[in-house]
Amino acid sequence: MLNNLIYVRGHPDDYNEWFQNKEGYNYAKDVLTYFERLEISPSNAGGSVYVDDLPYKTELPKILLKAVKDLGFSMIDNMNTAKQGFGVPKINIINGRRWTTASHFIHSKPWNVLFRTNALADQVRFHANFEAYGVEFLYSGNRYLAKHQKNYPSAGVINTPTILMRSGVGPRKHLKEVGNSSKSRSASWRKFAGSHHYWL
Ligand SMILES: Cc1cc2nc3c(=O)[nH]c(=O)nc-3n(C[C@H](O)[C@H](O)[C@H](O)COP(=O)(O)OP(=O)(O)OC[C@H]3O[C@@H](n4cnc5c(N)ncnc54)[C@H](O)[C@@H]3O)c2cc1C
């Protein structure tokens, strides 16, 4: 199935493999707990994402599932525990509509969040010691600066690094090529990436 708001936690073995060299970490304690807090369920009304079964199925998945079963592949009920096989995934949906963490924040209207649509984040601004102090954004034809010590860029897989590179953060060679080397921070990138938070 493609393009259907599929929700899968990922296999515990994969997380535990990533934790191999991290003493004291394990899937049950450091990952599963957070999934359980995140997912809204009868025992967790305070979660933030709905995870449910597909509200309707066409004939196509039934035919495909029968075909793979006839070919001898294993069928799976729970995508979070099976390693291989075919089955029907859970999805992020409520009353037939997509539900995301963003939906949760918008619906719960937290008092300390300001939503600004049609605003275009341009770059993160830094002090001379590379500490971020805000985000410059364009809104309604004007340029603004949202000052904050913690900034989390989440502009997607292409635009997030683009914004960072416009801010002078990235591979020095490439920044030079695009003429943004004057404030290049590539040398301190590792330290910087590990010790700062961004939000756009
Ligand atoms: C066809 C397709 C099907 C998929 N199906 C699934 C699925 O079933 N299940 C699943 O888990 N994942 C699925 N994914 C992957 C999933 O959509 C992404 O992993 C997820 O959306 C990434 O979230 P994000 O918040 O990092 O980025 P995005 O969802 O890309 O959000 C980035 C946001 O930033 C905004 N933005 C960009 N630049 C700026 C800027 N300069 N200033 C301000 N805002 C900006 C964009 O408009 C966008 O709204 C699918 C992806 C595709 C393409």
UniProtKB/TrEMBL annotation:
The keyword Flavoprotein is annotated on this UniProt entry: yes
Transmembrane intervals: none
Protein name in UniProt: Glucose-methanol-choline oxidoreductase N-terminal domain-containing protein
UniProt KW keywords: FAD, Flavoprotein
Pfam families xref list: GMC_oxred_N (PF00732)
Top-level taxon of the source organism: Eukaryota
Residues of the Glucose-methanol-choline oxidoreductase N-terminal domain: 2-179
UniProt GO molecular function: flavin adenine dinucleotide binding; oxidoreductase activity, acting on CH-OH group of donors
Cofactor(s) it depends on: FAD
Family membership: Belongs to the GMC oxidoreductase family.
